[in-house]
Amino acid sequence: MKLLTVCVAVFSAAAFADYKSFYFQKAQEKKENRTLSKPYSNQPEAQIFVQLINPSDPKDTRTFNQRYFVETQYATNKSSPTLFYLCGEATCGGVAAGLYSMAEKLKANLIAIEHRYYGKSQPFSQLTTENLHYLSTEHALIDAANFQKYAMKTLGFNGKWVVLGGSYAGSLAAYYRQKFPELVVGALASSGPVQAEENFETYDRHVAQVAGPQCLSQIKKVTAQLELALKHPEELSLLKAKFSAEKLLTELDFLYLVADMGALAVQYGYKDHFCQLLDSDNPMEGYAKFTQEIYKSWGMNALSGSASGAVSLSPADYENDFGMRQWFYQSCTEYGYWQNAYHDESLSARSQLINPTYHQDICRRLFGIEAPTPTSQINTQFFAPLLLETTSQIFFTNGSTDPWINLSIAEENGNTTNSKLSYFTIKGAAHCDDLRSPKPTDSEALKTARKTFLKLVTQWLQ
To answer: What pLDDT, in 10s, does the model give residues 384-401?
Structure first.
């Protein structure tokens, strides 16, 4: 395998399980970049490691360039530990901001690796269904192991390694520790939805519960108005214009967009503002106003998180944003994670038209995939072993307001049965908050999560 160096302008590494996480972090980093002593624009340059496209077949010699980032400023020698950060479903720009202070305390190296098929780490020039065949969790883990072995043997990172990630990459970190315990002494799985679930309707129930009865009632009024407008094209066109959603290809893509804006408000700390805007005789106006505010402050649009925005086959169209087409492919072939309406309408915040049939149609129209998502493969191969005491030294952190906690390992889920793992729910926290830059205003729970991880890592390294 060969190494090359390239220069890129990047922002910090991301932690996502859907596009909302990506744009939230991008907006947060834009704010933080003004005050950081080491702005994200000064992240280390990307380097290139040459990976096999199909590592499962020794006869297949095709390769692609995978980007990685190295920061050695805190390490003292070649035996210093390494924090190995796995990036997720978007362009990777380096290690998560919150890990710099951790590396300084541990006198550790920092390394981040970009996930195959995301950002600039592209095996093919077109994202056709055939070309996407090698995009899988198994191959992503093999990529990380191949790179780590090279870095230890050739680049001189000889100390102990700890693997970390957030959201989907948090799941990868947990799977990596389980699959390659000889390579890493421990893992942090921040907001990692380690259990695949095709019909992830509890996401919607969680949003409805956190929104509260009064706000949920207003959300339901908006949903009812939208469903009624489906029968009246002129009215529907006017409503789509309020949300700048004219380019969406289907009516249900529009309903999904609106539902996601409400989920976004609840998931990322805008609930009070969002619910206040809806608290009127015309909640649709407040809903549309909130959506436009998010577009402006987060740098996104109606296509950013929609199946309508995942039609292009060109990797370049996703290079600087969330890898929407690629993530839909993984959703269709591995994880599901479909955020459908909860079966009990009284506990649901989204239209009942957002259901398994809608998502099956997305897989069909984007990739020609007819079969249901085979989530049992992920759960049998990767999730189930995490519950056994043959797996150890993984720290699972989750935010209490984060709907993704429902697919993680947490006390709230009743699945913390493996005594060799550690778990912490951060009260009031959102998705992957513990990977962001520490601030004096952070809650005591968030500070405790970071202190607990530092204590665990110190023990693992000994």
So the answer is: 999 999 999 999 999 998
Helices (H), 180-250: 202-211, 213-229, 233-242
Residue 152 in tokens: 């230890």
**Contact by Cβ (8 Å): 99, 435:** yes
Find where tokens 């990630």 sit. Answer: 165
The domain ranges of the chain are 3-195+378-461, 198-367
- b/e map of 60-95 (b: 16 or more CB within 10 Å)? eeeebbbbbbbbbebbeeeebbbbbbbbbbbbbbbb
**Helix ranges, 230-353 (H):** 233-242, 251-267, 271-278, 283-298, 324-330
10 Å CB burial of residue 9 (0-12, 13-18, 19+) is exposed
- Above 80 in pLDDT, residue 282? yes
d(CA 91, CA 16): 11
Q: Tell the CATH superfamily of the 3-195+378-461 domain.
A: Alpha/Beta hydrolase fold, catalytic domain (3.40.50.1820)
* Token duo for residue 128: 């056709």
DSSP H helix total and E strand total for the chain: 15, 11
pTM of whole model > 0.90?
yes
Helix (H) or strand (E) run with residue 375 in it: helix 375-378
What are the residues facing 187 on neighbouring strands? 163, 394
User: Max CA-CA distance within the chain?
Assistant: 69
Question: How are beta strands 47-52 and 3-5 bridged, if at all?
Answer: antiparallel
Instruction: Confirm if 36 and 437 have CB atoms less than 8 A apart.
Output: yes
| Length in residues, the chain | 462
Please measure the distance between the N-terminal and C-terminal CA atoms of the chain and give it in whole angstroms: 32
Q: Kindly tell me if the per-residue pLDDT of 76 is higher than 70.
A: yes
Amino acid type, 104: E
Q: How far is residue 96's CA from residue 284's CA, in Å, rounded to a whole number?
A: 37
| CA–CA gap between residue 106 and residue 158 (Å, rounded) | 15
Phi, psi of 235 (to 5 degrees): -65, -40
Mean pLDDT for all residues in the chain: 92
Choose among 68, 67, 78, 73: nearest CA to 100.
Answer: 73
- Nearest Cα neighbor of 7 from 84, 67, 83 is 67
Q: Which residues contact 57 (CB under 8 A, 6 or more apart)?
A: none
Token output for 411: 């006390």
